[in-house]
Amino acid sequence: MPYRRLPNTDSARIRALRTALLIGNETPPHKLAFSQKSLMKLQKFLPEFENAIKLQRQYFTSQARKVKNYWEIVRKARIYISHFIRVMNMAIYRGELPSEIRAYYGLPTNELNVPSLNTENEIVSWGKRIIDGETLRIKKGGTPITNPTIAVVKVRYEQFIDALNAKKTLNEKASLMSEKNNELRKEADELIQNIWNEVEKYYSTLPAGIRREKCEEYGIIYYLRKGEFAEQNKTAENV
């Protein structure tokens, strides 16, 4: 026998609920194949579910657009921090600055390497060290490093920090939204299952073919098993 399967996507859930609601609103109560209790719950639930899914889709679309801009801000912050360190290292290499000044930035004084800036946390950490170190060195009478100056580095770093905090807020909001919608999906599946059970019970005394047609009018979707599908094709060929 064909078997039914609950919708497994949001679009399919909404389609099943809309079909049931349309029939529920147009059919007199005594002819409706599912209960008025289910209809009232459906009338209340569907708008909430549709709106929640719509908001989530809009949110993720907006988030996707912002991601591209975010990684450009990250790239700029990484470039300016690394360039500042490279310029400082070149000045040390030329003998214009003593290697000891690297200690201001938390860098080893016996090498001229640029620290790793591959991750967001590394940018956060080294950006702060570089800004604080250069500010302190200048305060003590040191000659400011230029091209880029620490003021320019600080602007790029603060833009990055703002974007990072905004990203974290967005991710938290997205997580909460997903959790809420997962609960709504469970509620949608339960409601669809209850309605479909009631419909199948209502038409349970009808012959199999007619029962299936009636149930499908309410949005129930049936799938043929492998053997049944082959048999149906064979029958169609013989007609």
Give an overview in words:
This protein has 239 residues and is mostly helical. It has one domain (3-234). The chain contains six helices and two strands; from the N terminus they run βαααααβα. The protein has a two-stranded antiparallel sheet. Helix 1 runs antiparallel to helix 2 (36-93), helix 2 packs antiparallel against helix 4 and helix 3 runs antiparallel to helix 4 (150-202). The longest helix is centred in the first third of the chain and has 58 residues, at 36-93. The radius of gyration is 32 Å and the shape is rod-shaped. The model is unreliable at 233-239 (pLDDT under 50).
Largest sheet: 2 strands, antiparallel
Mean pLDDT: 91
Percent in strands: under 5%
As a percent range, the share of helical residues equals over 70%
Residue stretches low in confidence (pLDDT < 50, at least 5 long) are 233-239
Q: For the CA atoms, what is the radius of gyration?
A: 32 Å
Count of helical regions: 6
Bulk shape: rod-shaped
Summarize the structure.
The protein has 6 helices and 2 strands, in the order E-H-H-H-H-H-E-H. It is an all-alpha fold and 239 residues long. The longest helix has 58 residues, at 36-93.
Key phrases:
single chain, 239 residues, mainly alpha, two-stranded antiparallel sheet, 72% helix
SSE layout and pairings?
Elements: E1 3-4, H1 10-26, H2 36-93, H3 120-139, H4 150-202, H5 208-217, E2 222-223, H6 226-238
Antiparallel strand pairs: 1-2
Helix pairs in contact: 1-2, 1-4, 2-3, 2-4, 3-4
